[in-house]
Amino acid sequence: MFADIMKYKELLYFLVHKEVRIRYRNSFFGFFWTLLEPLGLMVIYTIVFSLILNVDDSAKGQNIDHYFLYVLSGLIPWTFFNNSMKKGTKALSGSSSLIKKVYFPREIFPVTMLLSNLVNFIPAFALVIAVALIVGQPIYWDQLALLPAFILLQSVFILGLAFLVSVLNVFYRDVEFITNLLLRGWMYLCPIIYPISFVTESNNAMIQQFEWLYFLNPMAVIISLYHGILYQGQTAPLEYVGYSIGITLLVFIIGWVVFKRLNRRVGEVI
Fold first, then answer.
1. Which of 133, 160, 215, 261 sits CB 3.0–4.6 Å from 252 for a disulfide?
2. Whole-angstrom Cα distance, residue 11 to residue 63?
3. Which residues does the UniProt record annotate as the domain ABC transmembrane type-2 (predicted)?
4. What CA dihedral angle connects 4, 93, 31 and 43, to 10 degrees?
Protein backbone atom coordinates (compact mmCIF):
# COMPACT_ATOMS: atom_id res chain seq x y z
CA MET A 1 0.00 0.00 0.00
CA PHE A 2 2.59 2.56 1.07
CA ALA A 3 4.83 1.66 -1.88
CA ASP A 4 1.96 2.48 -4.25
CA ILE A 5 1.28 5.75 -2.48
CA MET A 6 4.94 6.77 -2.67
CA LYS A 7 4.79 6.43 -6.45
CA TYR A 8 2.28 9.28 -6.35
CA LYS A 9 4.00 11.36 -3.67
CA GLU A 10 3.87 14.49 -5.83
CA LEU A 11 0.10 14.12 -6.15
CA LEU A 12 -0.16 13.46 -2.42
CA TYR A 13 1.81 16.62 -1.68
CA PHE A 14 -0.41 18.62 -4.04
CA LEU A 15 -3.62 17.32 -2.46
CA VAL A 16 -2.41 17.99 1.09
CA HIS A 17 -1.30 21.50 0.13
CA LYS A 18 -4.62 22.12 -1.61
CA GLU A 19 -6.62 20.85 1.38
CA VAL A 20 -4.74 23.07 3.85
CA ARG A 21 -4.96 26.11 1.57
CA ILE A 22 -8.67 25.73 0.82
CA ARG A 23 -9.59 25.17 4.46
CA TYR A 24 -8.55 28.68 5.46
CA ARG A 25 -9.23 30.50 2.21
CA ASN A 26 -11.11 33.82 2.67
CA SER A 27 -10.63 33.48 6.42
CA PHE A 28 -9.37 36.53 8.32
CA PHE A 29 -7.26 34.52 10.79
CA GLY A 30 -6.34 31.82 8.27
CA PHE A 31 -3.98 29.16 9.63
CA PHE A 32 -4.28 30.62 13.13
CA TRP A 33 -7.70 28.95 13.41
CA THR A 34 -5.66 25.82 14.09
CA LEU A 35 -4.78 27.40 17.42
CA LEU A 36 -7.87 29.56 17.99
CA GLU A 37 -10.37 26.70 17.85
CA PRO A 38 -8.86 24.63 20.70
CA LEU A 39 -8.07 27.81 22.64
CA GLY A 40 -11.71 28.88 22.42
CA LEU A 41 -12.93 25.47 23.55
CA MET A 42 -10.35 25.50 26.35
CA VAL A 43 -11.78 28.78 27.68
CA ILE A 44 -15.34 27.43 27.56
CA TYR A 45 -14.52 24.12 29.25
CA THR A 46 -12.33 25.80 31.86
CA ILE A 47 -15.13 28.19 32.81
CA VAL A 48 -17.76 25.45 32.94
CA PHE A 49 -15.79 22.65 34.57
CA SER A 50 -13.35 24.65 36.69
CA LEU A 51 -15.29 27.71 37.85
CA ILE A 52 -18.80 26.25 37.86
CA LEU A 53 -18.39 22.52 38.50
CA ASN A 54 -15.05 22.78 40.33
CA VAL A 55 -13.55 19.73 38.61
CA ASP A 56 -10.03 20.95 39.26
CA ASP A 57 -10.77 21.56 42.95
CA SER A 58 -12.11 18.04 43.37
CA ALA A 59 -8.94 16.76 41.70
CA LYS A 60 -6.49 18.49 44.04
CA GLY A 61 -3.84 16.10 45.23
CA GLN A 62 -3.99 14.39 41.84
CA ASN A 63 -1.51 16.74 40.09
CA ILE A 64 -4.00 18.85 38.14
CA ASP A 65 -2.28 22.20 38.38
CA HIS A 66 -3.10 24.74 35.67
CA TYR A 67 -6.36 23.03 34.78
CA PHE A 68 -6.70 25.09 31.59
CA LEU A 69 -3.43 23.59 30.37
CA TYR A 70 -4.65 20.07 31.16
CA VAL A 71 -7.76 20.72 29.07
CA LEU A 72 -5.74 22.24 26.22
CA SER A 73 -3.27 19.32 26.13
CA GLY A 74 -6.20 16.94 25.67
CA LEU A 75 -8.29 19.09 23.35
CA ILE A 76 -5.61 19.52 20.70
CA PRO A 77 -5.06 15.75 20.15
CA TRP A 78 -8.84 15.30 20.22
CA THR A 79 -9.32 18.06 17.63
CA PHE A 80 -6.76 16.27 15.43
CA PHE A 81 -8.78 13.06 15.75
CA ASN A 82 -12.19 14.72 15.39
CA ASN A 83 -11.33 16.79 12.30
CA SER A 84 -9.50 13.87 10.65
CA MET A 85 -12.50 11.59 11.12
CA LYS A 86 -15.01 14.14 9.83
CA LYS A 87 -12.89 14.88 6.77
CA GLY A 88 -11.92 11.23 6.37
CA THR A 89 -15.55 10.10 6.24
CA LYS A 90 -16.04 12.23 3.12
CA ALA A 91 -12.58 11.50 1.67
CA LEU A 92 -13.97 9.43 -1.22
CA SER A 93 -17.53 10.70 -1.56
CA GLY A 94 -16.27 14.28 -1.69
CA SER A 95 -13.74 13.54 -4.43
CA SER A 96 -16.04 11.87 -6.96
CA SER A 97 -15.06 14.13 -9.88
CA LEU A 98 -11.37 13.33 -9.49
CA ILE A 99 -11.98 9.62 -8.98
CA LYS A 100 -13.97 9.37 -12.21
CA LYS A 101 -11.38 11.21 -14.31
CA VAL A 102 -8.12 9.46 -13.55
CA TYR A 103 -6.89 6.34 -11.79
CA PHE A 104 -4.49 6.33 -8.89
CA PRO A 105 -4.49 4.52 -5.54
CA ARG A 106 -7.62 5.69 -3.74
CA GLU A 107 -5.91 5.21 -0.41
CA ILE A 108 -4.40 8.61 -1.17
CA PHE A 109 -7.64 10.37 -0.21
CA PRO A 110 -7.83 9.19 3.44
CA VAL A 111 -4.06 9.66 3.75
CA THR A 112 -4.45 13.23 2.45
CA MET A 113 -7.05 14.03 5.09
CA LEU A 114 -4.82 12.60 7.80
CA LEU A 115 -1.70 14.50 6.70
CA SER A 116 -3.51 17.82 6.22
CA ASN A 117 -4.79 17.63 9.80
CA LEU A 118 -1.39 16.49 11.04
CA VAL A 119 0.09 19.67 9.55
CA ASN A 120 -2.32 21.60 11.78
CA PHE A 121 -1.79 19.42 14.84
CA ILE A 122 1.98 19.68 15.18
CA PRO A 123 2.22 23.50 15.61
CA ALA A 124 -0.88 23.43 17.80
CA PHE A 125 0.68 20.95 20.22
CA ALA A 126 3.91 22.94 20.15
CA LEU A 127 1.74 25.73 21.58
CA VAL A 128 0.91 23.48 24.54
CA ILE A 129 4.60 23.01 25.32
CA ALA A 130 5.21 26.75 24.94
CA VAL A 131 2.34 27.59 27.32
CA ALA A 132 3.64 25.01 29.82
CA LEU A 133 7.06 26.68 29.81
CA ILE A 134 5.49 30.12 30.25
CA VAL A 135 3.29 29.17 33.23
CA GLY A 136 5.96 27.00 34.84
CA GLN A 137 4.26 23.64 34.41
CA PRO A 138 6.84 20.82 34.74
CA ILE A 139 7.59 18.94 31.51
CA TYR A 140 8.58 15.30 31.74
CA TRP A 141 11.21 15.17 29.03
CA ASP A 142 11.37 11.38 28.90
CA GLN A 143 7.68 11.39 27.96
CA LEU A 144 8.17 14.28 25.53
CA ALA A 145 10.86 12.22 23.76
CA LEU A 146 8.14 9.62 23.07
CA LEU A 147 5.85 12.21 21.43
CA PRO A 148 6.61 10.97 17.87
CA ALA A 149 5.52 7.47 18.96
CA PHE A 150 2.28 8.87 20.43
CA ILE A 151 1.56 10.75 17.20
CA LEU A 152 2.31 7.64 15.13
CA LEU A 153 -0.02 5.51 17.26
CA GLN A 154 -2.84 8.02 16.95
CA SER A 155 -2.24 8.45 13.20
CA VAL A 156 -2.40 4.70 12.55
CA PHE A 157 -5.65 4.49 14.53
CA ILE A 158 -7.15 7.43 12.63
CA LEU A 159 -6.05 6.05 9.26
CA GLY A 160 -7.55 2.63 9.97
CA LEU A 161 -10.89 4.18 10.89
CA ALA A 162 -10.70 6.60 7.95
CA PHE A 163 -10.20 3.73 5.52
CA LEU A 164 -13.26 2.02 6.94
CA VAL A 165 -15.71 4.94 7.16
CA SER A 166 -14.62 6.60 3.90
CA VAL A 167 -15.37 3.56 1.77
CA LEU A 168 -18.54 2.63 3.68
CA ASN A 169 -19.83 6.18 3.26
CA VAL A 170 -19.76 5.74 -0.52
CA PHE A 171 -22.28 2.91 -0.25
CA TYR A 172 -24.20 4.07 2.82
CA ARG A 173 -24.37 7.83 3.25
CA ASP A 174 -25.78 7.36 6.75
CA VAL A 175 -22.21 6.57 7.84
CA GLU A 176 -21.35 10.29 7.82
CA PHE A 177 -24.20 11.16 10.20
CA ILE A 178 -23.50 8.18 12.46
CA THR A 179 -19.81 9.11 12.64
CA ASN A 180 -20.57 12.71 13.60
CA LEU A 181 -22.98 11.54 16.29
CA LEU A 182 -20.50 9.03 17.71
CA LEU A 183 -17.74 11.63 17.80
CA ARG A 184 -19.84 13.90 20.00
CA GLY A 185 -20.27 11.19 22.61
CA TRP A 186 -16.78 9.73 22.16
CA MET A 187 -15.17 12.91 23.44
CA TYR A 188 -16.67 12.43 26.90
CA LEU A 189 -15.31 8.89 27.03
CA CYS A 190 -11.79 10.33 26.92
CA PRO A 191 -9.92 12.10 29.77
CA ILE A 192 -10.02 15.59 28.28
CA ILE A 193 -12.03 17.63 30.76
CA TYR A 194 -11.51 15.31 33.70
CA PRO A 195 -8.34 13.60 34.98
CA ILE A 196 -7.89 9.93 34.20
CA SER A 197 -7.38 9.35 37.91
CA PHE A 198 -11.15 9.89 38.27
CA VAL A 199 -11.40 6.47 36.64
CA THR A 200 -8.35 4.67 38.00
CA GLU A 201 -8.83 5.86 41.59
CA SER A 202 -12.63 5.95 41.71
CA ASN A 203 -14.49 4.57 44.75
CA ASN A 204 -17.57 3.89 42.62
CA ALA A 205 -18.11 0.14 42.41
CA MET A 206 -19.51 0.30 38.87
CA ILE A 207 -16.56 2.33 37.57
CA GLN A 208 -14.15 -0.11 39.21
CA GLN A 209 -15.96 -3.03 37.62
CA PHE A 210 -15.93 -1.61 34.11
CA GLU A 211 -12.60 0.24 34.25
CA TRP A 212 -11.10 -2.25 31.78
CA LEU A 213 -13.83 -1.41 29.27
CA TYR A 214 -13.03 2.30 29.49
CA PHE A 215 -9.38 1.64 28.68
CA LEU A 216 -10.25 -0.48 25.66
CA ASN A 217 -11.01 2.88 24.06
CA PRO A 218 -7.70 3.64 22.29
CA MET A 219 -8.38 7.38 22.23
CA ALA A 220 -8.72 7.48 26.02
CA VAL A 221 -5.31 5.85 26.34
CA ILE A 222 -3.71 7.96 23.60
CA ILE A 223 -4.91 11.25 25.10
CA SER A 224 -3.63 10.12 28.51
CA LEU A 225 -0.21 9.62 26.90
CA TYR A 226 -0.21 13.25 25.78
CA HIS A 227 -1.26 14.31 29.29
CA GLY A 228 1.64 12.31 30.70
CA ILE A 229 4.07 14.75 29.11
CA LEU A 230 2.91 17.43 31.55
CA TYR A 231 1.10 15.59 34.34
CA GLN A 232 2.67 12.70 36.14
CA GLY A 233 0.20 10.02 37.18
CA GLN A 234 -2.34 10.90 34.48
CA THR A 235 -1.23 8.22 32.02
CA ALA A 236 -3.22 5.02 31.51
CA PRO A 237 -1.74 1.87 33.14
CA LEU A 238 0.97 0.30 31.01
CA GLU A 239 -1.00 -2.88 30.27
CA TYR A 240 -3.78 -0.82 28.70
CA VAL A 241 -1.27 0.99 26.52
CA GLY A 242 -0.31 -2.45 25.17
CA TYR A 243 -3.97 -3.30 24.59
CA SER A 244 -4.49 -0.02 22.73
CA ILE A 245 -1.54 -0.70 20.45
CA GLY A 246 -3.02 -4.10 19.64
CA ILE A 247 -6.50 -2.66 19.05
CA THR A 248 -5.02 0.10 16.87
CA LEU A 249 -3.23 -2.42 14.66
CA LEU A 250 -6.40 -4.53 14.45
CA VAL A 251 -8.50 -1.50 13.46
CA PHE A 252 -5.93 -0.55 10.82
CA ILE A 253 -5.87 -4.05 9.31
CA ILE A 254 -9.67 -4.35 9.27
CA GLY A 255 -10.06 -0.88 7.79
CA TRP A 256 -7.51 -1.50 5.08
CA VAL A 257 -8.92 -4.94 4.15
CA VAL A 258 -12.48 -3.58 3.90
CA PHE A 259 -11.23 -0.61 1.91
CA LYS A 260 -9.38 -2.83 -0.57
CA ARG A 261 -12.38 -5.12 -1.08
CA LEU A 262 -14.98 -2.39 -1.56
CA ASN A 263 -12.63 -0.07 -3.42
CA ARG A 264 -13.21 -2.00 -6.66
CA ARG A 265 -16.86 -0.88 -6.77
CA VAL A 266 -16.34 2.73 -5.66
CA GLY A 267 -16.02 4.01 -9.23
CA GLU A 268 -19.35 2.43 -10.18
CA VAL A 269 -21.30 3.63 -7.15
CA ILE A 270 -19.88 7.08 -6.70
1. 160
2. 46
3. 29-262
4. -120
**Chain-centre distance of CA 40, in angstroms?**
18
Picking from 230, 215, 21, the residue whose alpha carbon sits closest to that of residue 129 is: 230
In this prediction, residue 268 carries a pLDDT of: 67
pLDDT, tens digit (0-9, with 9 covering 90-100), for 72-122: 899 999 999 999 999 999 888 877 777 776 677 788 889 999 999 998 899
- Position 126, amino acid: A
The better pLDDT of the pair 42, 170 is held by: 170
CA distances in angstroms from 201 to 49, 205, 211, 234, 240, listed in the order given: 19, 11, 10, 11, 15
CB atoms inside a 10 Å sphere around CB 58: 13
Domain segments of the chain as ranges: 2-269
CA distance 27 to 46: 27
Q: Which residues of 141-161 are buried (b: 16+ CB within 10 A; e: fewer)?
A: eebeeeeeebbebbbbbbbbb
- Of the two residues 123 and 35, the one the predictor is more confident about is 123
